[in-house]
Amino acid sequence: MVPSITRISRFITATISTTDEVAIYHPQGGAVTVAAGAKVTGDGGIEIKGGTLVLEHSQALGKKTDVRFVKMNNAYGKVQLNADVNQMVHDLYVDGVKQPYGTYGSTSSSAQYKDDTRFAGSGVLNVVGTPGLAIILR
Question: pTM for this structure?
Answer without folding.
Answer: 0.80
